[in-house]
Design brief:
Blueprint: H1 3-12, E1 13-19, H2 34-53, E2 57-67, E3 76-86, E4 90-101, E5 106-119
Antiparallel strand pairs: 1-3, 2-5, 3-4, 4-5
């Protein structure tokens, strides 16, 4: 793999957020609230999209979401972002969420989703991507 290809691969898929949910993030079932997970995924996806857009982005759609397992208190969460597609103004980001669980830190995929972001100008209007890697 050439250094240019490796760089592009690393840019397209990377661990974007690593965090530990807190007791305030629990739902009534004692697991981590799904809305908290969605917001963390939105932050991770936006971070990846900004690199491609070369400026600010806005979330315009969550195209797909799947919850595989609940996130438990004490889990360490890692969110991986993979740039799937770029358009003239849009970036589609595939997000995979993994939990490290327990003393042995077993790894579990807990959530996945596909978010679409649009590059925006200073007035909040769509603008062409600056760093597109189609």
């Amino acid at each position: 793999m050439t250094s240019e290809m490796k760089s592009l691969t690393e840019e397209r898929r990377r661990a974007t957020i690593r965090t530990i949910p807190q007791p305030a993030d629990l739902n009534v079932n004692g697991n981590i609230f799904g809305g908290w997970v969605l917001s963390q995924m939105d932050l991770a996806g936006a971070d990846a999209a900004v690199r491609i857009a070369g400026g600010p982005v806005a979330t315009v759609a969550i195209e797909a979401m799947k919850f595989h397992r609940p996130i438990e208190l004490g889990d360490v969460i890692s969110i991986y972002a993979d740039i799937e597609k770029t358009g003239r103004t849009s970036v589609t980001v595939k997000l995979d969420v993994y939990a490290e669980r327990g003393v042995e830190r077993s790894l579990h995929q807990v959530t996945e989703g596909r978010y679409i972001f649009v590059a925006i100008d200073n007035d909040g209007r769509p603008t062409p991507l600056k760093n597109s890697h189609k």
